[in-house]
Amino acid sequence: MLKKANSDLVRRQNRGLVLETLRQHGPLARITLGYQTGLSPASITSISGQLIDEGLVYSIIEDEEVSTQAKRGRPQTRLALNPQATNVLAISISVDGVELVFADFSGATREPIKLRLDTYATPKEDFGPRVAHEIKANAKRLGIALTSIKRIGVAVQGVADTISGEIPWSPAFCARDIPVVRPLERILSIPCSIGNNANMIAEALIATDRKKYGGTTAVVFLGHGVGLGLILNGVVFHGANGRAAELGHMNHIPDGPLCRCGRHGCLEAFSADYGIMRMANDRRGTDFDVHAAVRDDDMRKLELAAEAGDTVATNAFNRAGEVLGFGIARLIALINPQRVVLAGPGTRAYDLLKDSVGEALRRGLVHDLRKNVEFEVVPFGKDMIATGTLVETLRHLDRDVYATGQKGTVVEFSGRKIA
Ligand SMILES: [Zn+2]
User: Fold this and answer.
1) Is residue 322 part of a domain?
2) Ligand 1 center to residue 263 CA distance, Å?
3) What is the pLDDT of residue 236?
4) Chosen domain end from 81, 96, 129
5) Among 34, 36, 373, 407, whose Cα sits 20 to 30 Å from the Cα of 158?
6) Residue closest to 82 by CA, chosen among 397, 412, 419
7) What span, in angstroms and rounded, lies between the C-alpha atoms of 276 and 271?
8) φ, ψ (nearest 5 deg) of residue 349
């Protein structure tokens, strides 16, 4: 019995390994797949045969021109993930809207679809059903059968509870504890999971360059809020229920300025776009609503004013950088990262922040603890969040669904099985 269980486990691990290797490297000849996975030629033949029979993998026979250039003059075949095997969907929820990105099993995506949904004013019980309705309508429009979508991944700005599938709090909503996973699963009969958008950016970076980001890396998101994706030993750390690494809501000063989470003095109350804009407005005696999204062109005007030497604007960016620098100093002392990556739309103004970030790091942390940490600012595209969500969603299918070989039986988020 134990022997059977062990052989099932090995088989599952090997199938998952083959799928993940093809996902990471793209189409591979069997011999290269064997080299990359460390599996024997017999194992590769057996597993690839099963995966082809199940429609998850297919053979690409190189065209004649290529084959004549091949060493033995014979057509070469490579194995690839079958795009038609299944579809997945990434949903991104942020303070300025909800976006859908459909992708096939190979990870190829369709054009992002921006939904017309006023998340802030939507009653919390209506949110899931409205998104489900939009998914149905858009899938139909694109000719994607709902039954072909095997998993949905949701990324949210704010706090995502990976156990309950709810959003305890997000600046995108007026309400708290918004149910997302359960209504989507109930209405669409598609397994669904939820995570924080900074974690999804971390997933996207690992998928882009595992060697560079796959060790211990802190991915700091700057923009409408301040988030953190924490990569520990190559794996994104979620904590007990997905609420880990809320750098933006670590307290900087008790009873400080109001944060969007409702507390006072959080780091992001200084360093998010609204924190910077509020500081400038306060100095100028202008009213400011913390809960309203900061318009990009207003932020751009403030950046230009700071670049032109305006004292009020410069002071606001300096203070934001200082608070951010002290936060990163604590983070470095805690996890000893190889690399700190700054991402998000707020990095556009990083030149205005970096001197005060550097000064705060020097004041906040002994040289020995910060000397080997590399800093990097990565160009941010919104697609990083969707990419990371799709990476995580497809990895779940590779490892936990298709690796088992029980096609069609998928374990739902809540642990319930659905057909
Ligand atoms: Zn807060």
Assistant:
1) yes
2) 5
3) 94
4) 81
5) 373
6) 397
7) 6
8) -100, 20
Q: Which two tokens stand for residue 406?
A: 């029980």
Ligand 1: centre distance to CA 120 (Å): 17
Cα–ligand 1 centroid distance for 8 (angstroms)? 47
Q: What CATH number does the domain containing 279 carry?
A: 3.30.420.40
Q: Are residues 215 and 108 in the same domain?
A: no
Same structural domain for residues 216 and 354?
A: yes
| Distance (Å, whole) CA 337 – CA 230 | 9
CA of 119 to the centre of ligand 1 (A): 19
Say if residue 337 is in the same domain as residue 236: yes
CA–centroid distance, 23 to ligand 1, in Å, is 38
- Please indicate, yes or no, whether residues 233 and 344 belong to a single structural domain of this protein: yes
Check residue 63 and give its pLDDT: 64
**CA 160 to ligand 1 center in whole angstroms:** 14
Domain that holds residue 257: 208-377
**Separation in Å, CA 56 to CA 18, 84, 196, 330, 403:** 11, 8, 29, 45, 10
Number of domains the chain contains: 3
Q: What is the 225 CA–ligand 1 centroid distance (Å)?
A: 9
Binned average pLDDT, 10 residues per bin, the chain of 419 residues: 74 92 93 94 93 93 58 76 96 89 96 90 94 97 96 94 93 92 97 94 92 94 93 93 89 94 95 96 87 90 97 97 97 96 94 97 93 90 90 93 67 35
Q: Please report whether residue 221 resides in a domain.
A: yes
At 380 the pLDDT is: 76
Give the largest Cα separation in the chain, rounded: 78
